Amino acid sequence: MKVGLVLPQAPEDGAGGTWAEIAALARQAEAGGIDSLWVCDHFFNLPDDGPQVGYHEAWTLLSALAAVTDRVELGTLVLATSFRPAGLLAKMAVTADDVAGGRLILGLGCGWHEPEYRAFGYPFDHRVGRFEEALQILIPLIRGERVTFEGPWNRVEDAVLLPPPRRPSMAILIAAKGERMLRLTAGHADAWQTAWFGLPDERYAERHDHLLAACDAEGRDPATLELTVGVDVSDAEDGPHLALDAQAIADGLAAWASQGIGHLQIGMPMTTPATVDVVLEGIRRFRG
Known about the structure:
By secondary structure, this protein is an alpha/beta fold. Helix content is 40%, strand content 22%. Strand 3 and strand 4 (53-54) form a beta hairpin.
């Protein structure tokens, strides 16, 4: 099982989100044996009971990370396809993958945080329908095909990516839990992502059962779809998470590996050199 780390992107919350801190954490994690590094795609988070927190932009960070790392895979967890035209998103993905030397995992989703949409003028309606249209443009483009498409929300005519993609086999990961999104995952993705958890539980089992039903409906062999999961690591007293303790992390990773997870992404509320060291030690213990 591969294990990745979600990097911080919010400088003002004290969690290590300046570019200098992000780059240092990326190098630390890569040197310590992490398999992948991940960024999320948000303008900001506006919780019901807390202050507004802003994030550095995902693609800009990912491209910079591609230039300052050598080995780790780099992923988006996950890009909201509604924030960028599908053709532009495809162009950005293959460019970033070229900078990274073929290390990109293209994680996609339909978006969910309505305040961002209102603030920056993006439509929030028909998000899954818009997502489905985006896939019909984006995926063939990154596979090196020419695309003509017209739908209610998207239109391209004889679009092609030049220079052509260096790696038409770039992995597509989709985060999904609703029926329509799971059907799109089964129909188009290389990997399925669900989050956020501590140990495997009934909530995960239910989501996995729904994924299997979607694969059956789409005629997809579920063995050909990689399972990935986001896991919280925290020293909080409540909520589903793994304790910020090397042995607890090792045991948690073993529990998820027993569920057939192929790639696990660790997220932490405070990502610092000290907490990354604990995670890396947990990974080493898991791997024996």
